[in-house]
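Quarterly update from the structural biology core.
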Amino acid sequence: MFTFTFPQLLQQLANGVTVGCLYALVAIGYTMVYGILRLINFAHCDIFMMSMYFCYYAITVFSLPWPIALVLVVVATAVLGVIIEKSAYKPLREAPRISLLISAIGVSYLLENLATVVFTGVPRSFPAVGDMQEILTFGEVRVMKLAIYAPIIMLVLLFSLLFLINKTKTGMAMRASSKDFETARLMGINVNKTISMTFLIGSALAAVGAVIWGQRYPQIQPFVGVMPGLKCFIAAVIGGIGNIKGAVVGGMLLGVMEILIVWRFSALSGYKDAFAFIILIVILLFKPTGLFGETFVDKV
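Predicted structure, tokenized:
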């Protein structure tokens, strides 16, 4: 018979919130790109992976102080996202939607195999950043400082992004472009620049998520982004893909439910990753557009 104490529940909730924040940060990138291009950017999980390697080399190999290293990692990852958009997606702007999808899958495989060649497939240990891995004790509850930092970082970035989208000209351009490219161009909006800005912001958030992920799961290899990327995509779909607040709620919900299910059914912990897909199926059976989704009219 399953029994638990209140401190144990708090322990698992803290773990779930931490994982949920990580899912949310990366899911925002998926949902922003889909909101404008109606494209599932499958390369996003590999941008996540590349940012982990950027951080590893910046801190471990080049011995940079971690604050400087983190700034450089976010900038480098954002630039990588823009380069991918310019080289792999922009030339196909007027092509059929399936062409963009195939290009995204191709970029994903390219990054994974490039990382295997350049960084080798040998797993590496992700460096500690600040005191995030320090353990705090509250009675019977023991949590990493990461459990406190992750929600704060996620909320600060979320509100900053919402301010950008709702209160600035750049955000207005993003919202207009998400409705109709041609009308946005007639209003004087540079759609290409707006799309590049979307990739830049999404990639930068993925970099932050990758660094935090590395503090909780400190191992890197070329395919490290595959499963987190799938789960973050699931989080975006659960929340209603195209909706930023929905991506955050979906990420938090997925993280908490995944941890609680594994805790309750510990004998099935080996099937932990499958629970994410089961949760997705159950939610979509009752809410096909996700929790906060809306029906989109495709841009033609």
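The two ends are 57 Å apart (CA to CA).
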